[in-house]
Amino acid sequence: MAKWRELYKTPSDSDKLSVILKLVGEACNIDCNYCYEKRKPKTSGRMLEASEVRNFLTYLGNHPLAVELHGGEPLLAGRKRVADILNVLQEHSLPVSIKVMTNGLLLDDEWLQLFSNTKLNVQIGISLDGDPDHNLYRLDFSGQTTSSLVEHSLRAAHQLGIDIGVLCVVHQRNVYDPEGVLHYFTKFPAIKTVKFAPCFDYNVEQHPTVKRSDSTLSLFSLNEDPEWSISPHEFSIFLNKSFDIWCKEDFLSSFFLEPQTSLLRSILGQIPADCHTSPRKCSYVVTLYPGGRITSCDELPAFLSLYTDSINETTSIDKALIFEENSHLLNEWVEQVLQKCSNCEYSHVCRGGCVAARQRLKSVGKDEEYCQYRISVIEHLRAMISETTLDFHKSRG
Amino acid sequence: MSSRFHELIKAISKTSPSSEYLSETTHTSAVSLSEWRQLSSIMTDDKSATDTLNESHDQVSDRED
């Protein structure tokens, strides 16, 4: 078996799958400049029905599931619809864990109680890029900032004793201020994890069928990358500095950082949860859109990720996932990206990163810079582990 | 260097990721809460154990004094 294959496994019949339910397609109540869903062709505008989710579960067969309620903004589906879908998920015969990823604007006490009262123990993630200045790419449709509503939700979660994971997109407004970003998050005791996701938005285009605000369109310059985009090198500096601050200021007592915690696991010889640092990548991901379209991870280009346009047209998800059906293109594409890892001494720790991001960077000649970012962070963490272990032994005499 | 970081390294070394969280996509930060709960719990238990040991040690030392 080629070495890169060890970095990209395909699931067996009983492996856990990561399932993304696009409850409302790409519909959202805010208009983030960098939103990747809104760059794609417009979808039906429908919402997922509980009956569609029930059919989907039958289609998925005997896999335990890690379900993510996603969008657009999933809370736009409304409490009744979401409660019905949670009830259907609860009926699945195999274990199901549920996460919801929301922009936090609608997350009031009723939503928080709905999620915390269900037997499935829904875990909540909120998107927030730092303080109100860092967060200025996340605007509503009238161009107003959204931070104050999100802050209100974080305080409400704390009052109810509910833990929150924050997804912080790293872009030009926050990449040079890791200290400010971390200090801001410590103001909210509900936050227990902060996951940094980079905006490597090279070579991206806005699809003409989706209406975007003038402010967003103005950030797409002709023949240039969008204003918010950062390079892998910038991201590595951000991650290393944020990690140093996290240790030095003892923010570790407040929240964990990702992807650093996953990379620490990997350095220590374990296989983490994060798909970038695990061999369980796109072929473990199944996304359901309203209307029955099923794809792999939605970070992938649409032409590569499509399993089927209609849930009724494909008889076996297992065949799709192991590339026997529509996804042979994806298989070839993944091989092109990961072949390079076969000769890399860091591959057993890095485990290839994100193939979708790597392909985008490869198309603009930045694939080596992506590898250097991963190596830089791994080396930084290794040095910290060595230093800490040395300090510990010195302190013990 | 932060002693908490050393505790984290020890806590990670004590765990093996369960299938419960062997599947997090890039889209969500929520499931890392499982990670936080697991590791924080180990770190707290370790600290309690260390504190207890130190207290016992102090008591012994007091008696010896």
Class derived from helix and strand content of chain B: mainly alpha
Let me know the number of strands of chain A: 10
Biggest interface goes to: A-B, 60 and 33 residues
Range of strand content of chain A: 5-15%
Quaternary assembly:
heterodimer
Structural class of chain A: alpha/beta
Instruction: Report on the biggest sheet of chain A.
Output: 10 strands, mixed
- List the total number of helices of chain A: 14
User: What is the percentage of strand-forming residues of chain B?
Assistant: under 5%
Mean pLDDT of chain A: 88
Provide the gyration radius of chain B in Å: 17 Å
Order of helices and strands of chain A: EHEHEHEHEHEHHEHEEHEHHHHH
Largest sheet strand order of chain A: 7-6-5-4-3-2-1-8-9-10
Indicate the radius of gyration of chain A in whole angstroms: 21 Å
Output the helix-strand order of chain B. HH
Polypeptide structure, described:
The complex is a heterodimer of chains A (397) and B (65). Chain A is of the alpha/beta class and 397 residues long. Helices cover 37% and strands 13% of the residues of chain A. Chain A has helices spanning 50-60, 79-90, 109-117, 147-159, 178-185, 214-219, 232-248, 260-267, 302-305, 317-321, 328-338, 347-350, 355-362, 367-395, and strands spanning 17-22, 65-70, 96-102, 123-127, 164-170, 191-198, 256-258, 285-288, 294-295, 306-308. A 10-stranded mixed sheet of chain A has the order 7-6-5-4-3-2-1-8-9-10. In chain A, helix 8 packs across helix 14 and helix 11 crosses helix 13. The longest helix of chain A has 29 residues, at 367-395. The relative contact order of chain A is 0.14. The model of chain A has no long low-confidence stretch (mean pLDDT 88). Chain B is an all-alpha fold and 65 residues long. Chain B is 69% helix and 0% strand. The longest helix of chain B is centred in the last third of the chain and has 33 residues, at 32-64. The two termini of chain B are 33 Å apart. Chains A and B meet through strand 1, strand 2, strand 3, strand 4 and strand 5 of A and helix 1 and helix 2 of B.
